Amino acid sequence: MKKVFVLAALAIAAVPSMAQVKYAVSGTYAEDGKKVYLIDQLTEKKIDSTLVADNKFSFTGTADQDALMSIKAEKQRWEMQFFNDGTPLIVNLSDSTLQGSHQNERLAKFVVQMDMPRKRFSDMTEHLSEAEIEARMDEISDEMNKMLDEMKAIALKAFNEERNSLIPVAFAGFYFLENGTEAYDELVKQQVVFAGHPYLKKMRDDVEALTRPADSQKTAFIGQPYTDLEMADPDGKMHRISELVGKGKYVLVDFWASWCGPCRAEMPNVLEAYNLYHDKGFEVVGVSFDQKKEAWVKAIGQLNMPWLQISDLKGWQCAAAPIYKIDGIPDNILIDPQGKIIDRGLRGKVLHRRLQQLLAE
Length: 361
Known about the structure:
Helix content is about 40%, strand content about 20%. By secondary structure, the chain is α+β, with helices and mostly antiparallel strands.
């Protein structure tokens, strides 16, 4: 409890001034007549809009000092982010360039880098039919892995290289998804200059709600005994989770499917954890939400998963869904040696840190 109060005090001390600061944004865009929006990233609301005339637009007004804001043209996914630091901005929405303070110019370069892998993946997939996506699932999964890895690397680069500016705030979502929301407490403890920015806290709360929603049906299972499941492996032999639980090991029950892109993207991380901690008392059992046995078996081989795999091949009618309130995958539960569920939804480095806590020599 003492630690909580200390961290809270540090966070309060680090909160920047909420004084109102004038902004002046002038810009160009190649499409006359299109609407351009000014967006507050904290509230996710459009606070102003204007029409492009003679390829030009502008915004003036006041907002909180250092508020994270963005400019976006209608029907465009791209957003030009900036901090309201009082320096006038000149933006070009056609070529994604920005002139302003050194901080905002640096931020723009990171944003452009972050958007490149997303755009590459979007260009590859946005026009594909469901049948084409299924036929090219392996290729798409590989590209998704590349995209996520590149975006996480860019976020990490921003946090490492820009610790004396506000720039990391803009990439906090990816940072917390990769490092866990506990990383927020560490940033506050270190008293980095951006620790008190409200958008950092928002991203921490958003990721927490996304990965481990408080008081949900899912987290209600934590602290409760697990419920056994019995399904067939790829050879048709029946297995129970209880074959692994209660033998002095921690067991991760991993809910996934061959058609689930995020599941496939996460699997190399689970494999890495398995290889690192299996000899120390860590087991995994995969429970698939597949319907087609051929696709399920093929994915097991492609993803190099050496642990027990079971499925009733009923898709979303899988017996595990009502038992563990599964409404989306990937998902997982971690069971301790006594058969109690001690965690859920462990992904990325969060899984590794949890296992390190439990199995450190």
